[in-house]
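Field log, afternoon session.

UNIT: design team B
ACTIVITY: writing a sequence onto a fixed backbone
BACKBONE:
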């Protein structure tokens, strides 16, 4: 099973875990509701899976592996930037935004 397949197969479980983690690391004065957290995590997970499924020729794969794709932003890049900007505007520290992308340990069995 590919990672994109896994994301799509366990979409709602991943959103539950993401939301729980984001709530745990968010500041108490944050104005992020459970609904906002769930919506943004769903948007990012959907974009990640779509980005993984996007076809690339050999030249694009090589350029991306070196980080040489600075000129164009993928749909995921745009969503990730929007997500980070939103979190920062709601009182997340930069470290909290980065930590939100980390997989919570231990990952519960599904």
């Amino acid at each position: 099973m590919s990672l994109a397949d896994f994301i799509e197969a366990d979409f709602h479980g991943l959103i539950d875990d993401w939301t729980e983690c984001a709530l745990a690391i968010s500041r108490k004065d944050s104005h992020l509701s459970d609904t906002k957290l769930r919506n943004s995590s769903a948007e990012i997970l959907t974009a990640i899976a779509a980005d993984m499924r996007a076809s690339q020729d050999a030249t694009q794969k090589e350029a991306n592996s070196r980080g040489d794709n600075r000129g164009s932003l993928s749909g995921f890049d745009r969503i990730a930037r929007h997500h980070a900007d939103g979190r920062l505007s709601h009182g997340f520290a930069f470290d909290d935004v980065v930590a939100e992308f980390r997989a919570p340990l231990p990952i519960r069995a599904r």
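LOG NOTE: DSSP finds six helices and no strands in the chain.
NEXT ACTIVITY: expression trials, pending approval
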